[in-house]
Amino acid sequence: MKRIELLASELGLRENEFVCYGTDKAKILREPNNFLNSHLILVTAINPTPYGEGKTTVTIGLNDAFSRLGLSSMAVLREPSLGPVFGLKGGATGGGKASIVPEDDINLHFTGDFHAITSANNLLCAAIDNHIFQGNELEIDPSTIMVKRCLDMNDRTLRDTFNITAASEVMAIFCLSTDFSDLRKRLGNILIGYTFSKKAIYAKDLKVDGAMALLLKDAFHPNLVQSLEENPVLVHGGPFANIAHGCNSILATKTAMSLSDYVVTEAGFGSDLGAEKFLNIKCPTSGLRPSFIVLVATVRALRHSGIENLHAHIDHLRQYHVPFCVAINRFSDDTEEELQTLQSYCKSLRVSSILTNSFSEGGKGSVSLAQYILKNFDSSNYQPLYSSSISVSNKIEFIAKKVYAASSVIYSEKAKEQLEKIESLGIEHFPICMAKTPYSISDDKEKLGYPKDYSISVRDIVVQTGSQMIIVLLNRIITMPGLPKRPNFLDME
After folding, report:
1. For residue range 201-213, what is the model confidence (pLDDT) as tens digits?
2. Burial class (CB in 10 A: 0-12, 13-18, 19+), 141
């Protein structure tokens, strides 16, 4: 592979605008500028099986395909969490010939970003506990503390007191901050609880936000690596789409757009999770506007979920007025009959479909997809699904009906209490971050296909005043996963 300093120099970066981590990784120090002339392509998918369906592979392959066509292109991905790496899903560096390297480093400790985020979060928790222990001058009511410690590992024993790092508010802030000064401000605005007299208390009241920012100062620079075809890829931030907003950092996306004409990014799980949050949280927060959306579908996923699941995601994406197509990610066990059936189904829904096979062919396997995008992205007229000015309950209902095809929303008593608190904080303009199962467009993983006219259940609502999101937990979703019966670590040595 190319030495990383050569790749950086080919991007036009000067020696003082990046710092190498060995010979194959680097941090980009240059502030993004002139990014509005670049085209942003989002890769999303239908509801997956538990093993993933190849969004990252398609993203990397599409970036390689643009390069094969002689275009200036970069891919932007999230950093893998150790939880899935050692658990069930595995790493997040693509597959086959559409992979990024150094694979093992990226999937494990990489440049230490996850550890920095974990440390910043846990410093805040320690500061809260210490303040109370040392006399509690601010009169914090311990029963109202909202911040949990975090760990980048699946550990069900810690469920009551820990989040996985990917679901922490510090991770959300890390990815949604537009620059370092915004990061610093958002850390200070983390709501940690209330006083005995019901006054809101924030991280800045403990004067811990400066130290938290210090822990994140190096991590906040985007990471540069490369694909197997030696094309540049940024990997930065790693929230899960089922329990967080599921997109890489705004800073990395803008950096890539300032360095290339075409940027390919992906959002986690199906369009009902990652893409919905990309289009309704990340884009309105950052001012980014997508030029095109790729909806990845696989025969094996539709064998499991039913072909009508594709229809659900097509109906969802049509509402954003961004051109899109279906990319059929081909696997070796797909039959020609199954592929033709899927293509005919797309045609019946008046949606173009393109076969891709980057896993076996690298960028060559996605050239047709790249050529289709180049012919069709000019018609983008992106608009988010809902206005920030409507109430929180109306936003939740809007997503439930327009994305999940539900007919009603049922709130627990705890969730109703949280809605009342939100009104008192004056943050109703915050976007909604739904936390739910990724395996169905509904809040019930057993409801496969395209369920309609049912009720979704809101169990709890969590306010994040630092990331400026309202987390809505549906049904039985949890923010600290457990390991499966046969974890991936059994195959590692």
Report:
1. 999 999 999 999 9
2. middle
Under 8 Å CB-to-CB from 387, ≥6 apart: which residues? none
- pLDDT 10s digits, 85-100: 999 878 889 999 999 9
- The residues pairing with 460 across neighbouring beta strands, listed in sequence order, are 473
Q: Would you give the DSSP letter of residue 88? A: S
Structure token digits, residue 174 = 């890390």
Q: Which of 397 and 91 is assigned the larger pLDDT?
A: 397
**Residues 187, 209 contacting (CB under 8 angstroms):** yes
**Tokens 């995008």 found at:** 373
> Does 142 score more than 90 pLDDT?
yes
Question: Can you give the pTM of this predicted structure?
Answer: 0.96
Task: Give the C-alpha separation, 86 to 487, whole Å.
Answer: 6
**DSSP annotation string for 104-162:** HHHHTTTTSHHHHHHHHHHHHHHHHHHHHHTT-TT-B-GGG--PPEEESS--GGGTTTE
Q: Nearest to residue 148, comparing CAs of 130, 165, 131, 173? A: 165
Strand-pair partners of 149: 162
The C-alpha atoms of residue 266 and residue 224 are separated, in whole angstroms, by 16
Cα 13 from Cα 9, distance rounded (Å): 5
Helix, coil or strand: residue 309: helix
**Distances from the Cα of 469 to the Cα of 27, 190, 244, angstroms:** 28, 11, 10
Q: In degrees rounded to 5, what are phi and psi of residue 168?
A: -75, 155
Tokens (6 digits) for 44? 């999303």
Does pLDDT of 52 surpass 70? no
Q: How far, in Å, CA of 23 to CA of 46, rounded? A: 37
Determine contact, residues 314/450, Cβ cutoff 8 Å: no
- The two tokens of residue 114 are 């996850």
Compute CA 164 distance to the chain's CA centroid, rounded to the nearest angstrom: 14
The phi, psi pair for 319, rounded to 5°, reads -80, -10
Question: What does the alpha-carbon distance between residue 223 and residue 29 come to, in Å, rounded to a whole number?
Answer: 10
Rg (CA), the chain: 22
Query: Which residues, 6 or more positions from 174, have their beta carbon under 8 angstroms from its beta carbon?
Result: 113, 117, 183, 216, 219, 220, 237, 249
Say if residues 166 and 118 touch (Cβ distance below 8 Å): no
Distance CA 50, CA 64 (A): 27
Please enumerate in sequence order all residues whose Cβ is within 8 A of that of 456, keeping only pairs 6 or more positions apart, or say none: 400, 404, 406, 408, 409, 410, 436, 442, 443, 474, 475
- Mean pLDDT over the full length of the chain: 96
What is the Cα–Cα distance from 107 to 344, expressed in whole angstroms?
Answer: 38
Rounded to whole angstroms, the Cα distance separating 319 from 402 reads: 9
Residue in the structure block whose two tokens are 């909202």: 146
- φ, ψ of residue 172 to 5 degrees: the values are -60, -45
337: three-class secondary structure by DSSP: helix
